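Page 47, continued from p. 46.
Same chain as before, 81 aa.
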Amino acid sequence: MIVLGAPMEPLEVHSHLLIGGRRSIVGWPSGTSIDSQDTLSFSALTGVRPMIELFPLERAAEAYELMMSGKARFRVVLTTE
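Result:
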């Protein structure tokens, strides 16, 4: 298994190595779907909660600017209530 450290790093692979050995190259931005499921299960079992900044929908423009400026401390979440 080859794990690349840098995102979007070029990878040169000769096709005969893939075809002849019945191999493939697979990528996933954050692990496998099982990894995501395991993470959510762990969070539910241990009470892990996200750190968020709540904004009412009326302040969506302000929330967006905060997020785009990189000054948001946590995840920016809009509420409809």
